[in-house]
């Protein structure tokens, strides 16, 4: 199912995966009214924009399919936030 897009946005692709054990879905779009027309938005609330199409695919894939290093970095950041409180 395609997400609800703005009238100026065009659906480019969807990536399904997870991060932190929670299912996530990233939707890649193109919007020619923005300075950086290509971008993706995740169901977790994260989003990024790019001037060309080349940056969208690898970053959207890596967001939904994090490497072991990405998972370790995320774990360490959560531990540091918890320790500071």
UniProtKB/TrEMBL annotation:
Question: What is the protein name for this chain?
Answer: Uncharacterized protein
Organism field: Streptomyces yaizuensis
Sorted alphabetically, which keywords does the UniProt record give?
Plasmid
**Source taxon at top rank:** Bacteria
């Amino acid at each position: 199912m395609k997400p609800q897009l703005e009238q100026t946005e065009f659906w480019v692709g969807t990536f399904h995966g997870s991060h932190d054990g929670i299912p996530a879905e990233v939707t890649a779009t193109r919007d020619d009214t923005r300075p950086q027309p290509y971008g993706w938005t995740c169901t977790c609330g994260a989003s990024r924009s790019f001037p060309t199409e080349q940056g969208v695919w690898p970053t959207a894939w890596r967001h939904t399919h994090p490497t072991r290093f990405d998972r370790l970095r995320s774990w360490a950041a959560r531990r540091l936030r918890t320790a500071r409180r």
